[in-house]
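Collaborator request log, item 7. Partner lab (contact: R.S.) asked for a structural prediction of DNA-directed RNA polymerase to inform their binding assays.
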Amino acid sequence: MSSSMNVVTSEVNNELFPKGLSKRFPHNCLSLMTTTGAKGGLVNFTQISSLLGQQELEGRRVPRMSSGKTLPCFSAWDTSARAGGFISDRFLSGLHLQEYYFHCMAGRDGLVDTAVKTSRSGYLQRCLVKNLECLRVHYDYSVRDSDGSIIQFRYGEDGVDVLKTSYLTQFKTLAVNHALLSKRIGVNTADEALCENRQSSFEMVSDAFHQELKGFIKMLAKNKRDGLHLSKQRDRLNFKRLMNLNFLSSCAEPGEPVGILAAQSIGEPSTQMTLNTFHLAGRGEMNVTLGIPRLREIFMTAAKNISTPVMTCPLLPGKSRDDAERLATQLRKVCLADVIEKLEVAVVPFSFHNGKVRKLYDIKLIFHSDDKYPPYLKLQKYEFENALQYQFVPTIMRELTKVISLRSGERAKDGIQVLSLSQLGELEEENGADEEEEPKTKKLPKDSENGEEVEEDEQDTGAEEDGADAEKRRAQENDERAYEEEAEDDDSMDGVNNVDAEYEHSEEEGGEIEKGGNKLDAAGEESDKISAPNLVQKKQINFDGSTFEMRLSVKHDTPHILLSEMVERVARQVTLRSLDGIDRVSVIDYNGDTSIPALQTEGINFEGLWSMCDDLDINRLTTNSIGAILEIYGVEAARATIVSEVKKVFMSYGISVDVRHLNLIADFMTHAGGFRPCNRIGIDSNSSPFLKMSFETVSKFLVESTLKNQWDRLESPSSRIILGQVVDMGTGSFDLLQNIVV
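Returned to partner:
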């Protein structure tokens, strides 16, 4: 809905600007101010003259209250655009009260987000600056660290200064002004040494620049009426030479602190980011982390396990969208809760079994019929049987045992002990045999059946205790009791974890799943003492393909348990079919091209997609997990992924960052063969102790460098500033040798 309203807003603005204005540019002073760049922008102009459009909070439309209303003046669950935060009015004519309130909500959201993100973006920039401050261009045009390690052989892969790239490929403009350009570069100089071209086997310019210039010259040769006076072969050769010289004059100067420039180019635009996550409403794309959290994942933490891992892979040419849907269905995770049509839980409070009173829980699951499943989803009977036998039943037993153990322990702590008939008989026999023993001092509450009080013997209680000694002793007793309870819980859980071994798949017709042998009857005759393996017993388990029935037996005095909620929770955890690491799969358009369908997965499993090489173009398989790319495809692929992922983050907000800065940071993080984070862990590999101490954890780096007898050669900017020396960058990157006449 939000995307649809944004389309409406764009269409209105396209019709209104610039031809729809009653007073057009340049006679419209507001249009003159925004168009020329004096003040304001197109957004301000449209909000004043046209409409404000859809208001969003955290990337979504205005949320609804518990009553279903966005504001009290609207009806509950009103689906109109205005009730969802769409403002059709403008500032020039004024806003309605409801629209004003919506606009204030969006404004406050922006203010709060700006206040919160300021510290995070500032720390992100500081981490980048401190890690990259040693990178500078040397006289061989390579970018090196303070210890001499090469980060890039050519800055930005072409050596061109970012500030001199605006007109570097504007060949037509440069051809018109070739005389002025020749004068600025100094082509017509009288010095013969400067005029002579140096013979070299290497190209002067980058391959991309050479190909673009070559194409422009071919175009000039075909079009002789362009007015550029470059139709002659000699003129074209001179123009090519001039462009090559212009390229060389645009290269970054030696001593340029390109590391700090790259860090600032990333840190400054990050303050303009607002959303933490991005999701297109009404479409099937996965939620992906963007904004500052994503930049922190890439630069600061170099996380291997990211918060929203996504894989994207297009289909081979000739494959249709139906083929993509079929593959997506095969990869999708199917939980037991997805196929349950009806859930029934019944309780039988009293049931006699072998002379004992038990409580029974009957669980019945009714599954959907085959015709109600999505297309291409063909679930087999053995998948149900395996999920029920090896996942659902053991998990229900384990969860139920855990709840009963906890509740029984709580009742014991409260001084209440529930005894069964068999336990009561055994206790009476013990009391008759021990009549001459010392009287018991601690009493338990009366049994509900015979009303007698049962006493418990305690040691070391003959003397009366008071004061601090009594408090200490009571504390010790409580600690010992707590340790004993934890030990009992651990033992009980060990017994529950072995419950899987008690099942075997029945080969009888009808697909029944039952317990092997006569273990069920034997378990029912065991003692009813509180221990995890005996708290819950299975009476009967049946499965006929469409219905699953299970009967559980517990002690009759067990506290009542809402078993339906537990069954629903466990059903969401049990999987019928899944691919390890992949939770969701959707079909999207590859790079916005509707003719090329692609699969997008939430989660990462390269082997799973490799197995579908007959349908998927695995050579174009991509993921946003840089750590996974590094592990599978190597460091060069990881370096390219860093550049592409950072570009996606900035493109989502309409921010442009020169690729040379991104290439430098990516090369710095991967030049050692791994994925180096820009934090105190990553800076630990730097050779300058003063630089490390100027970042964080001063005492840690100081002690470490002292114990290891490390030297600082004063080659980093921080170490030189600490000792009051000139920084080895810019004009300080060289020394002057002066002849002194004595």
